[in-house]
Each structure stands twice: as structure tokens, then as C-alpha cells.
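ZP: hey, is the NAP complex queued? I don't see it on the tracker
AM: it wasn't, my bad. submitting now with these inputs:
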Amino acid sequence: MPTHDPTAPARIFVAGATGVLGRRVVDRLVAGGHAVAGLSRSDANAAWLNAHGAEPRSGDLFDAAAMRALTADCDTILHLATAIPTKPRTSVADWAANDRIRRDGTRALVDAAVRNGCRRLVAQSVTFVYGDRGGAWVDEDTPAAGDLSPVVRSAVDLETIVRSAAADRGLPGAVLRCGMFYAHDSAQTRDMLAAIRKGFLPIVGSGTAHWNIVHADDAADAVCRAATAPSLASGEVLNICDDEPVMVRDLVGFAARALGGRTPRRVPAWLARLLLGRHAVDVLLASSRCRNARAKAALGWQPRYATYREGYGAVIARWRGDEGAERA
Ligand SMILES: NC(=O)c1ccc[n+]([C@@H]2O[C@H](COP(=O)([O-])OP(=O)(O)OC[C@H]3O[C@@H](n4cnc5c(N)ncnc54)[C@H](OP(=O)(O)O)[C@@H]3O)[C@@H](O)[C@H]2O)c1
């Protein structure tokens, strides 16, 4: 098993280097003087990596031998790859690629990290694993819900794979449970804001479910800190979300006012399930309030956008500017 020189600058392999989260992580790591290798399947994304100071590496995430070879000179592996469907109505089949990335992809990267003697592996999970707690506060000691939607169960499996390798194979692995991302360049955020402005985005049910959210810039900051922190407990699990879980009706109402949109209509949950698919709606109706104190303490992390008011306010301002720029 190779051992990496702890005094040498880190070489960090990023799977998912070209997504909403990964692009931000790559830019921060490169700016911090780290050598970054990014996995990518397309020429366009490889060109983006090159242009941003990272080395593109091409390979199949599900091929364990290929992942071992591609990461042989790396001391740190970040698993940020996802394939979250962005179309409005989804079935379980639409989530299959994402589930496979979380299960087979995590196994391949964990195996590579163990065999290559990496000093750390950080994997992206989701705060949805807490399921519906009726709006109760939760922290990392709260067990994952037992009745999770199948599209979230794969995140629990990802966590189990990383934590088992930490416990049984000596892998210094950490899991970041990220809240719902938002950013000016997130397809989900743009679609949501466009629908809110047109008055098309309904509030499902009472709108009193609490969401845990995080600006993608803040999530990237947490990932980089987890990747490069001098020490981090092996098997650590950290909630990466802002300081104020928000009720859906407050978030949508805030955005509607900021965008000059109509007051959002309400639709019953049964109708939303019919229109959007059961699993996506169940995930969006699940209510929990996540504490982020452990991440702050372990990583010295503080979200720059502490609540939806600052964060969505900034995104909406940028989005409107982008729109103006596009029209000009
Ligand atoms: N916690 C959250 O709320 C959360 C988490 C993730 C995503 N999202 C949302 O979901 C939407 C889509 O996310 P995105 O724009 O980041 O997606 P994306 O552009 O599809 O990027 C996903 C990343 O994963 C990689 N990837 C996907 N499938 C792969 C595979 N089979 N093998 C290797 N790498 C693979 C992609 O690499 P390639 O360069 O090879 O394409 C890319 O780097 C966005 O709106 C985002 O905000 C939300």
C-alpha cells in the first residue's frame, strides 16, 4: 500500500468536479495551492477543468480498477458526483443513476482510497436522511429515518459504505450531509425562481415543512475545509446547512415578493404527487430542522449566507442581473 508524504502539498482527486458543487470546490482548492485532478466524462468539462487549473482525468466511476489507477498519486479523494434528475416529474427509475453513483460509485472510490493509502475521503450525502421529524430539531446523532423514500435510501447506503470502511478498513473517511443547495447557476434554483415569478410554483400542503438549505458557495467551503483540515475524526458525519431551517411557505413567499411574483397558490399533497411524482414530493414534504454546530466546530466553518434572506436575496439579485445581461 503506498503511503503519501504528509509534508507534501495535497493532491486531491475530485469525482463530480464539474457539477454545481464540484466547480466551486475545484476553484477554491486550486486557489489554495492544491494540486487537483478532476474526473470528467466529457471533453467540454475536461476543458473547463484545464482552464481552471485542474488536471482532467477520464474514467468510469463504476470501474473500481480504473478508480484505483486514476487516484494512485492522490492523497485525498472527494466524492461529489451526483445525477439528480432536474425534470419536474420523476419516477424511481429517473433516480437510478444517482442511486448507482451513491452505491457502486462510493464503493469504487472507497476501495481506491483504502488501497492507495489515502489520508482522507470525503463524501457528499444529504440532510434528507433524517426523513420527516415533524419539524423537530436533529443533529448527527439522530439516526436516519427508517421509512425513507427509496431515492434517499441510497444516501444512507453511501454513508454506511464510508463509515464501515472507516471502522473496519482504517479509512479516514468523512460524510458531509448537505442541505438543499441553491445558487444562481443551479438548474433547480433557476427553475424554482422562474416558476415563482410566473406564479406557477405552488406551495404543497400547508407549506409548514421545514427545509434545511445551504448556498452552494458555503457547501463548497465546507467540503474544502473537510478535505484539507489537519485532523478530522475518522467516520465523522457533519450537517452542512445554514443557521436557520426555513418553512417552505416563508421561503417561497420571500422569493415571490423579491421577484414581484404573485402570491403562491396552495395545492394538496395528493395532487402534487400526481403532478410531480410521489418520491420527490414526499422528500419535499419531509420536515426536520438540522443543527450545524458540529460542522462549525470541526471545520471552523461559518456559512457566509447564514439564512435564506441573505442567500436567496443575493441569488435573486444575481439572477436578475444575469437576465438583464442576457437581454442586453
Ligand atoms: N444537496 C443538494 O441539494 C444537491 C446535491 C447535488 C445536486 N443538486 C442539484 O441537482 C442539480 C444537478 O446538479 P449538478 O448541476 O451538479 O449536476 P451535473 O452538472 O450533472 O454534475 C454532476 C457531477 O457529477 C458527475 N457525474 C455524474 N454522473 C457521473 C458518472 N456516472 N460518473 C462520473 N461522474 C459523474 C459529473 O461529471 P461529468 O463532468 O462527467 O458530467 C459532474 O461533475 C443542480 O440543480 C444542483 O443544485 C442538489
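AM: back. The mean pLDDT is 93.
ZP: great, adding it to the tracker
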